[in-house]
Amino acid sequence: MRWAQLVLGVALFFWSFRLDRGRKGGRLIRMPERALAGGGVAGLAGLAPAAAAAELTTMLPYLAAIGLLTGSGLAAAQIALIMAGYCLLMILPALLLLLAVRLAAGDRAEPPLRKVGDWLAGSNALSWIVGVVGFLLARDAAFRLGLLGF
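and the corresponding structure tokens:
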């Protein structure tokens, strides 16, 4: 299992260098637009791998927290309560902010929110997240396998 973690970490790290990095018209940037503009099944099929990569990179800290909690010796009800609180803590601020903006500005909020979305799509955030998660996975696996000599 540790070898699989090492391979996954190295693959994610090197894949992060291949991601489109803010180039206008890059493949990852255009995918949501194609899917929303009536790209049909092909557009959605193209969007799915990018969404899966984003989900995987953001899901890993959550899975690590679950692993720590299950190994902590707490009762199942306590683990469930802690995880529910964790999820609420991570989701609630963004939902409240978006709700406040929508209530305050209505349809006028659409252009600025679209600009922020376009800016995020054109940033290096996804490649950095994938690279950092890949490095941390590989480092942990290498350490546990004794490859680092510590």
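(Above: one complete record from the training split.) The mean pLDDT is 77.
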